[in-house]
């Protein structure tokens, strides 16, 4: 089974696949406020996770999601001007669930209840720098490639 490693310090996501010794490396953007587990912190949680759900596989590139639902909109610069304060969740969603009770699962540290995803973001947003509100942002094309390469249940380790 493939596995993912998210490295906050290097702002990279690595896809390890059982048939290949060399991981595929993607540039990402984690939380602007750093790492942390607490509900409402706006931080990216650390530790062992897994992909709980894959959302949007049938949607077009740059599909806009609100509340994990496709709005019917396709992201454009004009749409961005119309809604300047949206935190754009685009193309696909990989919803994370924590595995470690008291660290990233249950109570006020529950990654899934915090709605922490790996998701697409506008191509104008920087990668390789922390700018998200807690989630892990990726380029849309990279995310679609990753989405198609992994199943639900894929382990995800988020580390400093």
UniProtKB/TrEMBL annotation:
InterPro entries in UniProt: LD-transpeptidase, LD_TPept_cat_dom, Transpep_catalytic_dom
Q: Does the keyword Nucleus apply?
A: no
* Top-rank taxon: Bacteria
Identify which residues the record assigns to the active site: 119 (proton donor/acceptor), 135 (nucleophile)
Pathway assignment reads: Cell wall biogenesis; peptidoglycan biosynthesis
| Spans traversing the lipid bilayer | none
Q: Keyword set for this entry?
A: Cell shape, Cell wall biogenesis/degradation, Glycosyltransferase, Hydrolase, Peptidoglycan synthesis, Transferase
Q: Which GO terms describe its cellular component?
A: extracellular region
Query: Which Gene Ontology terms cover its molecular function?
Result: glycosyltransferase activity; peptidoglycan L,D-transpeptidase activity
| Domain L,D-TPase catalytic residues, every copy | 2-159
Q: Name one GO biological process term.
A: regulation of cell shape
Please state which protein family the record places this protein in.
Belongs to the YkuD family.
What is the protein named?
L,D-transpeptidase
Organism, per UniProt?
Zooshikella ganghwensis
């Amino acid at each position: 089974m493939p596995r993912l490693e998210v490295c906050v310090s290097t702002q990279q996501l690595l896809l390890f696949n059982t048939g290949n010794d060399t991981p595929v490396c993607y540039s990402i953007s984690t939380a602007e406020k750093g790492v942390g587990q607490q509900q409402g912190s706006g931080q990216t949680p650390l530790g062992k996770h897994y992909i709980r759900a894959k959302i949007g596989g049938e949607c077009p590139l740059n599909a806009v999601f609100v509340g994990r639902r496709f709005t019917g909109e396709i992201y454009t610069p004009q749409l961005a001007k119309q809604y300047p304060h949206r935190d754009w969740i685009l193309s696909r969603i990989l919803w994370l669930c924590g595995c470690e009770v008291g660290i990233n699962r249950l109570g006020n540290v529950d990654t899934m209840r915090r709605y922490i995803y790996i998701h697409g973001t506008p191509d104008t947003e920087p990668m390789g720098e922390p700018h998200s509100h807690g989630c892990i942002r990726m380029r849309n094309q990279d995310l679609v490639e990753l989405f198609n390469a992994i199943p639900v249940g894929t382990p995800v380790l988020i580390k400093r």
